[in-house]
Amino acid sequence: MHKIYLSLKYGFICVWSMFVVAPFLWALSTSFKDFQSVTSGATYIPWLQFEPTLEGWRVLWESPANGGVDIAEPYLNSIIVTCLASIISIILGTLSAYALSRFTFKAGFIRNNDITFFFISQRIMPPVVLSIPFFIMLGFLGLLDSMVGLIMVYIVLLMPIAVWIMVDFFNKVPREIDETALIDGCNPYQAFFKVVLPNSIPGMIVAGMFCLIFGWTDFFFAFILTFTEVQLLPVRIVALNSSITPWWSLSAAALISVAPLIVVAFIVERFLSKGNLSGALK
Amino acid sequence: MDLVAKGLTLEIEGENHLDDISFGMRKGELYTLLGRTLAGKTTLLKTIAGLITPDSGRLLFEDCDLGGVPVWERNIAMVYQQFINYPHLNVFENVAFPLRQRKVDPAAINRRVMTALSSVGLDGFEGRKIQALSGGQQQRVALARSLAKEAGILLLDEPLVNLDYKLREQLREEFRNIFSSTVASDSILIYSSTDPLEAMQLGGEVIVLDEARVLQQGPGHEIFENPANTRVAEISNDPAMNLMNGTIGDGSIQLGADMALPLPPHFKGLTPGDYIFGLRASDVILADKGISFTVELSEISGSETYLHVAGGAHKFVGLLDMVRNFKAAETVSLSLDVKKIYAFDMAGDLVSSPFGGGR
Predict the structure, then answer these.
(1) Is the reported ipTM for this assembly greater than 0.90?
(2) Chain B residue with minimal CA distance to A199?
(3) Given this model, what pLDDT does residue A275 score?
(4) Per the CB < 8 Å rule, is B71 touching A182?
């Protein structure tokens, strides 16, 4: 009985890992192929089944004039837009979450929970529905096809995540800590910056992670709200898909686009496993 | 009087949290707020601290109205029942926090923090992280922080309630020593508790709170000897004082149809009529020629036995100074010590006490 359970368990884990890891391996393998290798049937193992080439990776950095893709500029755009939007979302989100957690708001029938819900309702609507008003608004402001416009839209999309995570986080921090800070001579702003904020770093890191992931992987809004001036990485990658799909550089670009998130996850994991953050507040 | 409350009242959503609370407190003394859970103890402490603003009433400290003074400008320290410290700071910085906030000179900070830590028995813990301390040690850090501040008013909100029994006993003893040695004559100490034993042990004045009202204020022994009414008698005794309706007539106390007790000397002046009689559990004695009761429940606690009995229309709790297992439904013979019996009028106010109180 125990053996059956074990084999079932490991069987399931193996199948699941296949689903998670296989796409990466496929992309990695494909990125080293050329036209010939891609079209000559399913092959996976370099040197054995096909002759690897760096062509797919090389063209990513070539200018379009030389038949390349030039991924550097959209890459930088993506980093700037995602990071700025995430940082601003975390700052605004943390402040609003603290207010929603500590103060009681009343406006007619509206209470704190309703306000928290309004934030998250942005994410309940399908992106298609939001895209039209966003398009019209940015058009009115003259911010279509600009970094500033994209950052604004991303803040609207990312801040609810930050608010949602941070409200939950602050609700778990005893109010008495804030009160003790007040009694110990802090005014409300000092209490927030000297006591509450330093103890909120674990929550802010988690919220920041989610903002970075959602911001970095968004294709839809970047696609709708930009044309030629500003292009983000996901849009450029999809744009590679023309009459002949260059699977090799598409795969290489996809892998490069995932890289920053892996680095972020790695740093956060190291940071959290130090133990001084996760157990800070019990 | 150095700290005076005049008619503090607070109502939230139709419920009284503070109901016309008035008192006077003197520097250099310890006051215990005694009351059950939800009696308004924490609300009152937070009001004194300035964390809660009352609807009406005034709070004066050294003849200065605290009404317009925000929390962070009041000269107050507070210890909560939860172990509240700053998790991102080490022990030294936790204790130093209020002093740094007041821009005390660094050498003085160092001296005051070390003195405070030493008085709570945490020498050598300066560099430790808060999370690395046990509950009792965390509460000592909180206490050290409040002592180092040398505030005019020190509020302690059931500081021992979340600790295990042994540690509570030990810390209570230590607290008393710390208070008498370090709390200077120029501060007021207010301690809240649900435990009458704790209130009596700490010494000092006791303020009995119930349903957001002050029922009685006086020295601990005064509350114990002459509880102003039946509610105080219940709150200030553990187990609560036994209360039973009865009448005085024919030179005896009639408790229902089947129970009569001789009239004690201190009841001689009372007019015949209906009363509520009160008797402490410890004044219920096992006796051969007593009144027969049926055991409902018996619990052994340490070296004592709580005995819940019923007889006629009355139910009692007896606290026997012995360890014995009584069986449920067993018949026991008990004597009620009439020399220790209290009489309250039907409104619940004390009319006669064995210690000479009442009207």
Answers:
(1) no
(2) B88
(3) 45
(4) yes
Nearest to A185 among B51, B86, B101 (CB): B101
Residues of chain B with CATH 3.40.50.300: 3-235
Whole-prediction pTM? 0.82
C-alpha B150/C-alpha B186 separation (Å) is 9
> How much is the pLDDT for B105?
94
For residue A55, is pLDDT > 80?
A: yes
Coil, strand or helix at B266: helix
Q: Residue A209: which domain range?
A: 72-243
Assigned superfamily of B3-235: P-loop containing nucleotide triphosphate hydrolases (3.40.50.300)
Give the type of residue at A159.
Answer: M
Q: Answer yes or no: do A190 and B97 touch at CB < 8 A.
A: no
Tell me if A187 and B101 make a contact (CB, 8 A cut-off).
Answer: no
Amino acid at B345: D
A-interface mutation test, from B71, B128, B149, B156, most A Cβ less than 10 A away: B71
Taking Cα atoms as reference points, which of B21, B2, B23, B1 lies closest to residue B10? B21
Q: What is the mean pLDDT of each run of 10 residues along chain B (359 residues)?
A: 92 91 91 92 95 94 91 93 92 96 94 91 92 90 91 92 82 78 76 91 90 93 93 91 89 82 88 92 86 88 88 84 86 89 93 83
> Which of A183, A194, A200 has the most B C-beta neighbours within 10 Å, making it the best mutation to test the interface with B?
A183
The total of structural domains in chain A comes to 1
Asked whether B189 and B207 are in contact (CB, 8 A), the reply is no
Q: How far is the C-alpha of A184 from the C-alpha of A197, rounded, in Å?
A: 17
What CATH number is given to the structural domain containing A103? 1.10.3720.10
| CA A119 remoteness from chain centre | 18
User: Looking at CA atoms only, how far is residue B190 from chain A in angstroms?
Assistant: 15
